[in-house]
Amino acid sequence: xxxxxxxxxxxxxxxxxxxxxxxxxxxxxxxxxxxxxxxxxxxxxxxxxxxxxxxxxxxxxxxxxxxxxxxxxxxxxxxxxxxxxxxxxxxxxxxxxxxxxxxxxxxxxxxxxxxxxxxxxxxxxxxxxxxxxxxxxxxxxxxxxxxxxxxxxxxxxxxxxxxxxxxxxxxxxxxxxxxxxxxxxxxxxxxxxxxxxxxxxxx
Length: 203
Prior knowledge:
Layout: E1 2-7, E2 10-13, E3 25-29, E4 35-44, E5 50-64, E6 76-80, E7 82-87, E8 92-95, E9 102-104, E10 118-121, E11 129-134, E12 151-159, E13 168-177, E14 184-185, E15 201-202
Parallel strand pairs: 1-6, 2-7, 9-13
Antiparallel strand pairs: 1-3, 4-5, 5-7, 8-10, 11-12, 12-13, 14-15
């Protein structure tokens, strides 16, 4: 028997992939009462943003619900494509509680959150850039690299707009507190009239 399996049109967001359920098929032709579509392969023409993509079905399998047997060989199957629209994603960035924003000066550059410390949706962590600013987000305050000195900074996680996603950003205030330092003068003594001894101290 002739049977045409056509993929339904789908609109998805970049990065989510198409739905491959059997229910996303339109069957045209006569199918015996106990025969059902068991599985089918759906292949998207692209995984990039597009308004003119297509979904191609193939390798359809039919079975008999009464006997459980494969009855695909009883059908002459042809396939029809469905339209695929992939829309730009809107990334979302959230600093996690695992990322510390309070440090004590130790001479090292302040760190940025790892993939486990920054929740990223709508894009990959590898797409995120980190920018440092002194005290506030303004062009004049932008730093060329991660700060090392004590102070208050703004860390901005950014996903630039691209062909596949919109712009997104998130900010976190990061504070590097001065390190406590105690300087103690060493005890000295001299006899009256003598020159002062070498004055020393310990840190």
